[in-house]
Amino acid sequence: MTAEFLDGKAIAEDLRKEIKQEVDERIKSGKRVPGLATVLVGENPASQVYVRMKHKACQEVGINSYAIEMPKTSTQEEVEKKVKELNADPNVHGILVQLPLPSGLDEEKVLNVISIEKDVDGFHPLNIGRLAQKGRDPLFVPCTPAGSIYLLKKVVPKIEGKNAVVLGRSNIVGMPVALLLVRENATVTICHSRTKDLPGVVRQADILIAAVGRPEMVKGDWIKPGAVVIDVGVNRVEDPSAKRGYRLVGDVDFEEAKEVAGVITPVPGGVGPMTIAMLLQNTLRAAELAD
Ligand code: GUN
């Protein structure tokens, strides 16, 4: 059996077109142009690439973006002061503090300062807290988890009652995606480094979301035949035959998994493009909230 590929790039592209249309309509009707501010502290090369991609995507859909770059020697006070300035700026509807922050800075305190109405990453403790509670709704949902569920729903419109296994429990992906699956009435198992018989647990999954950051860890024989596999991992592995000397692989061994799974997302071109599309959508929504 060969799995169906779930093409995140194409699905994100469609979504971006819809967002561009909505942005154009806003502007035509005289409303403020949506604005996203990114705060990048230090010079983490991967973070620099991600932030650059976010600005390019904003530009393509007509969202204004403001790049704040601060040296890695910035103090906690300086970073918080910058976030407060952005909170007060009416041209900025969304604020994204790129993570991880350099060591020495308190991430939790910085995220806590972001106005929840501008928290387009959905990482403010109030938004995450609401996500975790029944009958409460966050203003924004974190982008990679939201993008993963958006893709999943394309092939599994009714998630209710399915066995979902989440590999990884990070604040950015694993935990919020598990919370979203619970909200969809899936039966959710969260696996991590202390999980016993990981292949056996993963084999129970109708839906597998892999977000551990370990290249090709999930093997074909871990996967239940016909399962839907959403691979969030983006890992660099050395490859002398590649132009850059490395290639990107997911947390799932794609070549093996595609022979067993029913549906699988590729890396790159799966969840990655969805993350950015969700950020654009959240920024548009933040602008609407401010109208
Ligand atoms: N670092 C890795 N992923 C993300 C993300 O979605 N948002 C932010 N702010 N930082 C990240």
Describe the SSE topology.
Elements: E1 4-5, H1 8-28, E2 35-41, H2 45-61, E3 64-70, H3 76-88, E4 94-97, H4 107-113, H5 125-131, H6 143-155, E5 163-167, H7 174-183, E6 187-191, H8 198-202, E7 207-210, E8 228-231, E9 235-238, E10 246-249, H9 254-257, E11 263-264, H10 271-290
Parallel strand pairs: 1-11, 2-3, 2-4, 5-6, 5-7, 7-8, 8-11
Antiparallel strand pairs: 9-10
Helix pairs in contact: 1-10, 2-10, 6-7, 6-10
Bound molecules: guanine.
Describe the structure.
40% of the residues lie in helices and 16% in strands. The protein is α/β, with parallel strands linked by helices and 291 residues long. It folds into 2 domains: 31-115, 3-Layer(aba) Sandwich (Rossmann fold), CATH 3.40.50; 142-272, Rossmann fold. The chain has a 6-stranded parallel beta sheet with strand order 1-11-8-7-5-6. The chain has a 3-stranded parallel beta sheet with strand order 3-2-4, with helices on both faces. Strands 9-10 form a two-stranded antiparallel sheet. A hairpin with a 7-residue loop joins strand 9 and strand 10 (246-249). Helix 2 (45-61) crosses helix 10 and helix 6 crosses helix 7 (174-183). It binds guanine.
